[in-house]
Predict the 3D structure of the following.
Amino acid sequence: MSVALSSESLLDLAKSRAPADRERLLLAIADLCDTPHAGEAMMAPQIQGLLSSIFMSLVVEAERDIRQRLSEKLAGADWAPPALINVLALDEIEIARPVIEKSPLLRDLDLVRLLVEATIEHQVEIARRPRISQNIVSAILHQGEPAVLTALAANDSAELSPRDMAELVERSRQIAALRQPLARHPRLTSDLAERLYLWVGQALKKSLTDRFRLDSEALDRALAHSVAEAHAGAPRASGPRMVKARDGEREEMERRLIEKLHGAGQLRPGYLVRALREGRLTLFVTALAMLGRFEAGQVQRAIDSDQPELLGLACAAVGIDRSVFPTILELVRDLNGGRPGGGPDSGRRAVGAFAPVSPSVANAAFRQAARTL
C-alpha cells in the first residue's frame, strides 16, 4: 500500500469517533513511525498537510492513554507536524515529557514559550533536555526558579558559559540543592570551586578539595574570619536614629555584611529586628531583600508607601511570626519618618497579611504587588 493510500485510510479512521477506530488509528500511526525510511516519505508537502489534519483530529478528542502513546511514538520523529509536537509539549507532564526530552522539532522559541507558559514540571524537563542552547540557559537563569536551576546544574550537556557557571555558583548561596550538582559539574573551575567551598557541607568540601587540590585550611580560616566579622557587625547605636540615607561606601559595606552572613548560613529573620533596634534601616532593607530574594528597591518602595500590608507580606514571606510584626512596623516607622503610612486602620490591615498561607504564597504576592509601586 502506498503512503498516500495509507494516509487516506488514516484520515477515514480519524473521522470516526468509535473507540475501536481510535485504537486502530493509533496502531497505524505507530506502524508508520516504525517503518524504515518513513520520515523521508512523510516530509513531502502534500503528505505533511494530510498528516497534520490526521494528528490534530486525533489529539483534540483522544483519551489520555492514546495521547501518551502518541507522544512516546513521535518524540524522536523529525517528520511529525510541528504544531502537534507543540500541543503535546503543553499537555500534562507525563504526556509532554517524551517530546520535551527528545523532539528535534522543538526550536528555541518553542522552548522559551514553554518556560513562560507551562508548569514548573515542564520547565524542569526543559532544563534537563540534552544540549540546550545558551538562549535557553539564559531564559532559565532569568526566571530563577530554584527547581529549574537545579535541573540545569545537573545537565552536563547544556551550553553553560563561564559567566553562567559563575551565576549558578552565586545562586547556590541561597539554593542549597544547587551545590551538589555544581560540585560535580565538569565546567566548574578551581576559582569557582573556592567560592562554592564557602557554603557547602563537609562531604562536598572534601570532594572539592580532592578534585581541585584546594587549600582547605586556608579556606576554613577565611570562612571563620568572615563569620566572626559578620557577627561583630558595626558599633551599636546609642538609640534609634534616622539612617535611611547612606553614602555609597556605607551601603556597600552593609551589602557585603549581609552577603557574608547569608553565605555562612547565619542570616536569620531575627536579624531584621536586631538591625531595626540598632537604628540601621538600610541594613534591615538589605537583609529582608536577601532573605526573600527580593530586589532591595522593592523593599524600599514598600516601606515608603502607604500600604504597610506590603511590608507584612514581605515579612511573612521570610518567616517572621505574626506576633513580632507589629514591633517591626513600629520600628520601621520610627526610622522612616512615619512610613509606611496608611491611616489609623493600617496596622490591622498589615497584620492581616499574615493570613494562613505559606511563605511561598506570601512571597509571590509581595512580588506581584511590588511591581505596581
Summary: The CA atoms of residues 93 and 121 lie 7 Å apart.
